[in-house]
Each structure stands twice: as structure tokens, then as C-alpha cells.
Amino acid sequence: MPRHLDLTALRSFVTVAETGGVTKAAGFLHLTQSAVSMQLKRLEESLGLALLDRSSRSVSLTAAGEQLLSYARRMLDLNDQVILRMTDQDYEGELVLGVPADIVYPSIPQVLQRFNIEFPRVRVTLLSSYTRKLRDLYARGGCDMILTTEDHVGPGGETLVERPLIWIGAVGGSAWRQRPLRLAFEKACIFRPDVQKALDAAGVPWDMAVESESSRTVEASVSADLAVHAAIEGTEPPYVERIAHNGGLPTLPRILINFYTADPKGDVPKAALAALVRQAYRAG
Question: Which residues are CB-neighbours of 85 under 8 A, at least 6 positions away?
């Protein structure tokens, strides 16, 4: 007798794998944590395999889970394509979303993917730039909605989450021990003055060793252990790690992730995109 995989359970499994946890996955799927956990349990029981390694606090896939993930993504993609082709889509148009480069990952790709499934004919243009530029674009009508990283919230904005700035450096690196402390920052980075002020207040000499227009240049320099950088907790780029300095570096300020958008006034796609953005960052 043929056996069938539950697509709803597969979607929960893929979302947990991509978000790194049941809590975040439940937020994206608009389900309770217990519902997602139950779906995962039923999926494992139907296959007779353990798909998730639950031996640590963080969620990771077993070898069987990694293999299933590839199949599951293809099955869900095909399912979504069929639904889109066979159903009528009412909404068309374009929305412009502005997001600072350092908080695009991990949330924005998941937001865009979910929105595209619900509104495939609505194009979302993603603008990635600095907070100051995004605020200016939004004020001039160049963006429908923007996220910002600030120490306060401006008129018309709402704070989605508050997170600390943390020191980041190369994996196993030692650049943070050097004096003067070698820093790597983009020229327009909004965190740069606060980091310098914190170092000055702590009496830690510093040198702007890497100054660039590109975040990639900064990331490459930091991962090579040539300098250190600061990032919002939870947004660390790959190939670097949080510095366990044990008080050797000053505590950095907390940063607000703010959201600015006008009342959608019956614009269903705009309201839906705004809701997804809010959910993604509040859940994170």
C-alpha cells in the first residue's frame, strides 16, 4: 500500500531547519510551538527515523534529516508552483522594502519567500543600505517601508526588538588583545561613533585599521584576524564569532531595530508584507 508524506509536516520541518529552532519556525508558520513539535514527531514516526538531533539546546539535523531536507524543499516548491498555476491571483504591483545590510540575514530571505508564495504577482524590491540613507529615502517616498538600526525611535516608527551590540572577531582570533585595538568599520556605519566612545570611556586605545565602503571588505578583514568589529547580537556574519573577552573590552550599547511604514489603507499586499516583517523580527 502506498505511503504518503504530510506536506504540512514537511513544511514545518523545512522551516525549523532554515530558522534554526521550533520557536522561530512557529512564528513564521503562525502555529504554536507544540503544534510544530507534534508535526515533527509525526513525520519522524511515519519514516521511522530521527530527523533532528535534540541532544543540545540548538536544533541540528541528523544525517537522515539532511537527506530529507533536500527532497522536502523540492516537494514543497513543486506543490507551491502547482497552487500558483492553478489558482487565480488578484494582486499585482510593486513594494519597496529598505533594510540595513547587517540585519538582512537571517530574517529577510524568509520574509520574501513567504510573501512571494502568498502574492506571486507583487514584486518586492529590496534596498540594502545604511539607516541614514534609508530614512532619507523613506521621507522622500522612495520606500514603502524600512527597517532601521538606531538608538531611539523617530516619529512614525515602532521598535520591533532591542538587542545589544557585541564584539566580533575571527574564529579563535587574537586581534582583540592588541593595543591599540584595531577596528574595521564601514565609513557610514551608524555603530562606529558609539564603539569609539565606549573605547575612549574605558581607556582602551584604538586605531581605525580598516575603513571601507563595503561590508564585505570589513567581514573579510575581521575573519582574517586583522581587526575587530561590532554587530547586533544574532546578526553575526559567517566566518566570525562573538569575542569572549571576559571584560577585556567595554560593554557596548543596545540597539533598537525600528520599523517605519505608513498605514496600508486597504492595501492588502502591503499590510501582509508589514505583518511578516514585524513577525520575523519580534520572533527573532
Answer: none
Is residue 81 pLDDT above 80, yes or no?
Answer: no
Q: Which three cell numbers stand for residue 171?
A: 574564529
Res. 54 pLDDT band, cuts 50 70 90: confident
Rg of the chain in Å (alpha carbons) = 21
Q: Kindly report the number of other CB atoms within 10 A of residue 157's CB atom.
A: 19
Nearest to 147, CA basis, from 105, 181, 110, 97: 97
pTM: 0.69
Q: CA 186, CA 229: separation in Å to the nearest integer?
A: 10
Q: Which amino acid is at 156?
A: G
Residue whose C-alpha is closest to residue 68's, from 7, 113, 21: 7
Per-residue pLDDT tens for 225-235? 999 999 999 88
Domains of the chain (ranges plus CATH)? 7-86 (1.10.10.10), 93-284 (3.40.190.290)
